[in-house]
Structure formats: C-alpha cells, structure tokens
Design a protein that fits this description.
single chain
C-alpha cells in the first residue's frame, strides 16, 4: 500500500472522529464541526505522509 493511501485512510478516520467529537460538544453545529474536522484531516494527512516518508524507505 502506498504512503499516500495509508495517510488518506488515517486522516479520514481521524477527521471523522474529530467531527463526531466537535459536533457533540458544540450542540450539533455541523458547519463549524465540519470545517474544523476538514482542516484537521488535511493537517493530519500531510503530517502522516511525511512521517511515513521518513519511516518507509523504498
């Protein structure tokens, strides 16, 4: 499996978890929870991609 695919799966799961936590804590404010989860997932994707690039040498 490529590093990008692994990072995408990890970021998708983390983004969904963050969305659920924020949606519950903000009283079902889906707009702000969705924006924050999308930004967090993008940051997590980039971070995980670079970490996997350092760990996995091809």
């Amino acid at each position: 499996m490529s590093n990008a695919l692994i990072a995408l799966f990890f970021a998708g799961g983390a983004g969904a978890w963050i969305y659920a936590k924020l949606n519950r804590s903000t009283g079902n404010n889906t707009k702000s929870a969705g924006i924050a989860a999308a930004i967090s997932a993008l940051f997590i994707f980039v971070l995980m991609y670079f970490i996997l690039g350092v760990i996995v040498k091809k």
